[in-house]
Amino acid sequence: MMGNRAARISLAVLVLVLLGIGFWGHRYIQFLTMRILTLGIFALGYNLLLGRTGLLSFGHAAFFAAGGYGVALFNLHVSSDPLLAILVGVSAALVLALIIGFFCVRHTEIYFAMLTLAFGMMFFSLVWNLTDITGGDDGLYGLSRGDLNLGVLSLPLGRDSQYFFLVLVFFLLTVWLVSRIRNSPFGLVLAGIRENDKRVEFAGVAVKRFRLAVFVISGGFAGLAGCLATLLDLYVNPFSAHWSHSASPILVSLIGGLNSFSGPVVGSVIFVALREIIERFTSNWMLWFGVILLIIIMGFRGGVMGVLKKYAAGKGGGS
């Protein structure tokens, strides 16, 4: 009960802080916060696959890019309505995840990881070479954010300060959905698959179907993150589908804590903040960024949230 109460209080404080940034924050802070929120959506969805189910995917950038290109193509050729564009982008990511997942979930461990990598790079190559549709290495640009039409009310999203609240709503929706999934019977089966898939299968559970379901759900969240990131930048390029981009949610989950619900969010904050700070002081930011990440990952076993929980448990036990 105390844990649930603390989680609700923490969430309420987080929402108040984010609302404060949306209403009164500097434009640069708002932009960085939106980067954190979109990465947080990406990582929260990914952690359902890795942290909850124990499946390591190197191809999730493909679903991120599918969402981004879905939004961009709809925006450029059909309508600038943001909600419809996001619906199209997420649908594209879900379909792609269903197709790729159908072949990948038949395998586990390193074979699963390598298959997702292979499919992800195939998608990257496809996006790179379909120049007439995707713009090739130039990507798609010239996008616009239309007004958010809510029937009786129309809200402008042209400025980043206005778009911030749409990103915030989708982030909070993601937090709620992922929480419900993790604590549902479906989520408990996923945890069982992570611990011992053979035993779960012997209990009569169709393990492959559950793996496929969580793979598609995770791909959908990746697509949503890609949609929001594309509408933030008003631009999408093929490198969003590159396998190296799939490393972002993995690193974020490891930094924050694989087995913690809030780990991906905490990891997203640390990831984006560290990168921004280091880039300001050195041109070799990738080297120092990698060193610091290694120190955090190796030094904080179980991630930052894991260490904090152990500290809190030890303090409570000592008292």
Fold blueprint:
Blueprint: H1 2-24, H2 27-52, H3 60-77, H4 82-104, H5 109-129, H6 131-134, E1 140-141, E2 148-149, E3 154-155, H7 160-183, H8 185-202, H9 207-233, E4 235-236, H10 247-256, H11 263-281, H12 285-299, H13 303-318
Antiparallel strand pairs: 1-4, 2-3
Helix pairs in contact: 1-7, 2-7, 2-9, 2-10, 2-11, 3-4, 3-9, 4-5, 4-9, 7-8, 8-9, 10-11, 10-13, 11-12
In short:
With 319 residues, this protein is mainly alpha-helical. 76% of the residues lie in helices and 3% in strands.
Description of the structure:
- With 319 residues, the chain is mainly alpha-helical.
- The chain has a domain of 213 residues.
- It is 76% helix and 3% strand.
- The strands form two sheets. The protein has a two-stranded antiparallel sheet.
- Helix 1 packs antiparallel against helix 7 and helix 7 crosses helix 8.
- The protein is globular, with a radius of gyration of 20 Å.
- 41% of the residues are buried.
Keywords:
4 strands; two-stranded antiparallel sheet; globular; 13 helices; single chain; two-stranded antiparallel ribbon; mainly alpha; 319 residues
Structural class: mainly alpha
Order of helices and strands: HHHHHHEEEHHHEHHHH
Strand content: under 5%
Query: Kindly, what is the distance between the CA atoms of the first and last residues, rounded to a whole number of angstroms?
Result: 19 Å
**Shape type:** globular
- The strand line-up of the biggest sheet is 1-4
Largest sheet data: 2 strands, antiparallel
Count of helical regions: 13
Query: What is the alpha-carbon Rg in Å?
Result: 20 Å
How many DSSP E strands? 4
Return the average pLDDT rounded to an integer.
91
* Unreliable spans: none
- Helical amount among residues, as a percent range? over 70%
